[in-house]
Amino acid sequence: STTAFGELLDWVLERASFFDSLSKSADLAPVVIHSLFKFLLQLVTPSYPCSRVNVPSASHNPTGVFLFQFVAQNLQNVMVGLMASPARQQLAAGQQVEAVWPRFLKPLKVLMDIARRCVTGDFCPFGVMQLYGDGKFDEIVVGVVQLVQCVPQDVYREYVKLGQSLGAILRTLTEGQAFTPFASMSVTDITFVTQYCIKVVSDTEQK
Fold first, then answer.
1. What's the first-to-final CA gap in the chain, in angstroms?
2. 20, 70 Cβ separation under 8 angstroms
3. What is the pLDDT along the chain (207 residues), one digit of tens a residue?
């Protein structure tokens, strides 16, 4: 209802600084980051199973813009933490995947799911952002791409759901013609990313 949505918005506004501080915390415990991402996932997906959050489509009014900015800022904060996390460094050093799944790989999977649903659920106010030159969504996609490249390709073959999330967000961006995130990348980087992602998605689908 309208009243329930207003109460949710008030609740988020009152706790925006808390969420910002939380998502900026270094090397968050898995239970914390998973709880935070579950809330954000429900926020951008009104039809999320058993969701207690019901956000009507409001992407092109001030409320929708605020909510997207709230989600985007928290995602960016977490991405910075993931890039600097010991778990990412352990993965690069060849440590067993099971040890880094809850701290790096699972958050990356859910991060891709949230970014994709910002597009499919009409949660991202693309028109308003383009009008005011806001590159928040572009920055999220570029951040996802950078994190994706930190994962060895054989890990995607072992954890199929991770590769499926990557394939899903790529299809969503392609079908929605949301190519602006790649405008800031060099031709060399785009070529590498394209070949890398095609290889990952192809291996995942074959498995």
1. 44
2. no
3. 566 667 778 888 889 999 999 999 877 888 999 999 988 888 887 665 555 555 555 555 677 788 888 999 999 999 999 999 888 988 888 777 788 899 999 999 999 999 998 888 767 777 777 777 788 888 898 889 889 888 888 888 888 889 889 888 888 888 877 778 878 777 877 887 788 777 777 776 665
- Identify residue 170 by its one-letter amino acid code: L
pTM of this structure:
0.84
> CA nearest 181: which of 147, 136, 149, 150?
136
What is the C-alpha to C-alpha distance for residues 140 and 143, in angstroms, rounded to an integer?
5
| Of the candidates 29, 163, 148, 36, the residue with the CA atom closest to the CA atom of residue 88 | 148
Length of the chain: 207
CA distance 146 to 162: 15
Q: In this structure, what token pair is assigned to residue 71?
A: 């989600």
